[in-house]
Design a protein that fits this description.
Elements: E1 7-11, E2 26-29, E3 46-48, E4 56-57, E5 62-65, E6 73-75, E7 84-86, E8 90-95, H1 102-109, H2 112-121, H3 132-136, H4 145-185
Parallel strand pairs: 2-7
Antiparallel strand pairs: 1-8, 2-3, 4-7, 5-6, 5-8
Length: about 200
């Protein structure tokens, strides 16, 4: 089975001018806004004045960064705080069937086999770009829906665990450094002889 068998793929909105954050308009999701390991930071996102219905994203959609070295995929969350559109060079992957879970699909597209397929098909000398055709031809294996959800959930928990372990290591390092600085400053511990 190929991705094109279960989803429709469209490109994001083409924007010719620089987008800025403002108080009005619709959220514009750009490549820099997406990360596998963090949620969208709506406060820093740019906006576009009109909604452009064709490019609106919602739960069930998966966005893919089609340019650069990281062709990462990201599932649009249930709790997207307000309407948003996707901006080129993001691809919008919309389900044409109900046999896959969007979080599982994003996970699958971020795995080595799919990433290798996309890298081999990428075009361009200095900046690699994945075409719609290459994305449509990604091989896809779909276990039963319940298993897809378990895999996506386990992946999410593993990512969260790694984030917490990294944070714990940073806190331990800060604590040790603070303890050493305190120990160095204790009175009576200075062995330097006075002149």
């Amino acid at each position: 089975m190929l991705l094109a068998d279960v989803a429709r793929i469209t490109s994001g909105l083409t924007v010719r001018e620089r987008l800025d954050a403002s108080f009005s308009g619709v959220l514009a999701i750009q490549m820099a806004d997406l990360s596998i390991n963090r949620d969208l930071d709506v406060r820093s996102m740019a906006r576009v004045p009109s909604p452009h219905p064709r490019y609106m994203v919602s739960r069930g959609d998966v966005l893919l960064r089609s340019r650069g070295h990281a062709t990462t995929a990201w599932a649009v969350p249930d709790d997207l705080p307000e309407p948003a559109i996707a901006v080129l060079p993001l691809f919008i992957i919309r389900p044409s069937t109900d046999i896959y879970d969007p979080d599982f699909l994003a996970w699958w597209l971020n795995q080595q086999n799919a990433q290798t397929h996309l890298r081999r098909a990428a075009q361009g000398q200095s900046i690699q770009m994945v075409s719609k055709t290459a994305l449509e031809s990604v091989p896809l294996h779909l276990p039963p829906l319940a298993q897809q959800r378990l895999i996506a959930k386990a992946s999410h928990l593993a990512t969260r665990e790694a984030q917490l372990m990294h944070r714990l290591a940073e806190c331990q390092h800060t604590l040790r450094r603070s303890q050493l600085i305190t120990a160095a400053a204790l009175p009576g511990q200075n062995h330097t002889k006075a002149p």
